[in-house]
Amino acid sequence: MQQSRARLFKEYKEVQREKSADPDIQLVCDDSNIFKWNALIKGPSETPFEGGVFQLAFSVPEQYPLQPPQVRFLTKIFHPNVHFKTGEICLDILKNAWSPAWTLQSVCRAIIALMAHPEPDSPLNCDSGNLLRSGDIRGYQSMARMYTRLAAMPKKG
Amino acid sequence: MQSNPDARVDNADAESNLTSVEVSLIDDWQNFRDDDVMQQQSDIQAVESEKIPFVGDKEPLSSLADEYKTGSPILLEKIKILNEQYAAIRRTRGDGNCFFRSFMFAYLEHIMESQDKAEADRIKANVEQCRLTLQKLGYTEFTFEDFFALFLEQLDDVIQGSDASISHDELVQRSRDQSVSDYVVMFFRFVTSSEVQKRSDFFEPFIQGLTSASVQQFCKTAVEPMGEESDHVHITALSDALGVPIRVVYLDRSSCDNGSVSVNHHDFAPAGNDQPSAQNGSLEAISPFITLLYRPGHYDILYSK
């Protein structure tokens, strides 16, 4: 508990110091609870998520950083490795490949990389995975782009 | 790297078998979310953890023979041979961290019993080198510094004569306390990873023999994550990085063609060892103060007579 708090505080200071270092990620700690974080990440360019801003919710366990943070999308997203209803993310570093060398900030970077490079062979969203696996790139991109417009972009007028 | 042809270092995955059996029992496993799977895994770990602490008590070697009473005659024969040289065994939990955990306890216990301050100072210099290597490799300092600090603290505390000095009982207690034990294990994982990456040209062919991953990928997925089992690559890298020789005694069912039984061991002697005894190049000259017993998939600590 003490160890995780101390580590998170270091991450907090780092985030404050490097605020402008990565314009695609805005990581914010809950005012009253250092174990709860939120992030806004920009959809990577040349993907169906371009132009969208996606919100992530972090819940950090007491065993952090020996155990990974729990992260999920709060913004609806159509992606093979994100559960369409719960926003849960299938990413190895959030599970068995986690190590304390990762930080909340670098987890955000890994999620952005996952958005650009989906892994359709381990899908949480089977519809999305099937489109990619059957080679229907256009279908996948259309669906993903539609949900980006609907859920991750400011409403027009 | 010296490789013992008889050595079974194929990393039989004894621990994860339990998980796969459990999963296959569930027909509709697709309905389980990742959270559930992870929850189940940690439940299994909780059950396992009640059976044996991270580091067990010292047991006479006869407890090993009892375990195989009805087992393979080759194993019983080998245990008899072990009996001539070794007095006791200290078991560690089979949670994928057993090599690092065994090394941790055996090393700190050795420093405590020998009060070898020169050795403690020597390893500190090596630890400092590892810190610099990680920095050079681009690791963020705050991601590993806590683990380094905790190990150095344990090292200082086993040296007697200061206010922080601890007893042998306290060392055992700390080795069973997750907030110390896992942090020191993680420290060794960082050290191992830094050495493998620093000498990636040397380690690459051995890693290619195990997996198709790149050196960096190997470190990210098979060295740094807790619970990933150790192989000869890990042992070589840790021994080299810290300059600590390690003897691994192999207890498996292999035997010679002529039917005679002997117990193999392999000494991991640090590369670039600056101890005078190593200069003549003879392995016999090195006498490791850490001896581990390897049974396929698991490491425990052995005590010489």
UniProtKB/TrEMBL annotation, chain A:
Active site: C90 (glycyl thioester intermediate)
BP GO annotations: peroxisome organization
Domain UBC core stretches: 3-153
Repressor recorded as keyword: no
MF GO annotations: ATP binding; ubiquitin conjugating enzyme activity
InterPro entries associated with the record: Ub_conjugating_enzyme, UBC, UBQ-conjugating_AS, UBQ-conjugating_enzyme/RWD
Primary enzyme class: transferase
Domain of life: Eukaryota
Family: Belongs to the ubiquitin-conjugating enzyme family.
The protein's name in its UniProt record: E2 ubiquitin-conjugating enzyme
Organism per entry: Oldenlandia corymbosa var. corymbosa
Source taxonomy: Eukaryota, Viridiplantae, Streptophyta, Embryophyta, Tracheophyta
Automatic annotation (TrEMBL), chain B:
GO biological process, one term: proteolysis
Reactions the enzyme catalyzes: Thiol-dependent hydrolysis of ester, thioester, amide, peptide and isopeptide bonds formed by the C-terminal Gly of ubiquitin (a 76-residue protein attached to proteins as an intracellular targeting signal)
Annotated GO CC locations: nucleus
The protein's enzyme class: hydrolase
GO molecular function: cysteine-type deubiquitinase activity; ubiquitin binding
SUPFAM superfamilies with a match to the protein in the record: Cysteine proteinases
Signal peptide range: none
Site location (Interacts with free ubiquitin): Y250, D252, Y294, Y299
Active site per the UniProt annotation: D95, C98, H298
Protein keywords: Hydrolase, Protease, Thiol protease, Ubl conjugation pathway
Domain OTU: 87-305
EC number, as in UniProt: 3.4.19.12
Family classification: Belongs to the peptidase C65 family.
Listed name of the protein: Ubiquitin thioesterase
